[in-house]
Amino acid sequence: MKRAVFFTQFLSVTVFVGSHLAYLARPDNQGVQQPDASGAVQMVQLYLHPANIMLWALLLILWALLVLDTIGQWQDPSEPEGRSQDVGQLVWPGFSAALVLHALWPWLAQPAPWLAALAGLVAAALAYHATRCATDQNRPAIGFVAGWSLVIATALLASALAGSLEMAPAQASILGILIASGAGMTAQLQLGRQVAFSIAVISGFCAIAVTTMIHDPVTAIACILGITAMTAVLIRAAS
After folding, report:
1. What is the pLDDT of residues 97-107, one digit of tens each?
2. Is the pLDDT assigned to residue 182 strictly greater than 70?
3. What is the pLDDT of residue 36?
């Protein structure tokens, strides 16, 4: 059973990383970002096409944590056999499913934004549930993926809304940041000392703030406000 759990996670991590690498390597990815007249770009495009070292660092840290967590599960599985029948309390089903959904949304973001948003929202919910189930396990990768999932899901939702309501990219980005901040604060209060969640959300906001501060200062300010709010909740959770 433990071998099956490990190989399920190994396969999902491989699919996740491989899908993102394949998407980033596409020759038609160059110049896909389409800023509006003010130079603003929809936030989801910044995650799809990392434009600076901060965005790349966030992605590389995420991949590294997933690889390290998979290796750790091979050496010392966290979930005891006694809980194997209580599927609702296990970490690996929701966590693996979330990674598979995250492997799909980059390919759907442009042709089917609402389907991509649905995939992102379900992935975020599954990753959050996995984090709740991992309360007694020392696995920061689970919380980090959940926080990253929240930022991605809200960006995808804001992008889909922008397309339907003809919102400007800057307005859509601010909407995504506000939703992520509110949901992130609520989630962290429920997660307690699992601070990897807030660290991921704050890191995502930092990367966007650095990227947009010159051409889209309003979005950068919204990110800074989100960082401030999440930091306050993080300090409370860690104390």
Report:
1. 999 999 999 99
2. yes
3. 47
Report the alpha-carbon distance of residue 61 to residue 202 in Å, rounded.
Answer: 14
Structure tokens at 195: 């601070």
Radius of gyration of the chain (CA): 17
Sign of the CA dihedral running 43, 45, 48, 52: negative
Where on the phi/psi map is residue 136: left (φ > 0), alpha (ψ -120 to 50), or beta? alpha
Which pair of structure tokens corresponds to residue 231?
């930091």
Residue 239's alpha-carbon distances to 47, 232, 235, in angstroms, are: 32, 11, 6
Identity of residue 125: A
- Helix axis angle for 140-165 and 196-212, nearest 10°, is 40
Residue 26 Cα distances to 49, 66, 69, 146, 175, angstroms = 11, 23, 28, 27, 29
Phi/psi for 69 (5° steps) reads -65, -40
Tokens representing residue 19 in the block: 């899908």
Q: Give per-residue burial for 206-237: e unless 16+ CB within 10 Å, then b.
A: bbbbbbbeeebeebbebbebbbebbeebbeeb
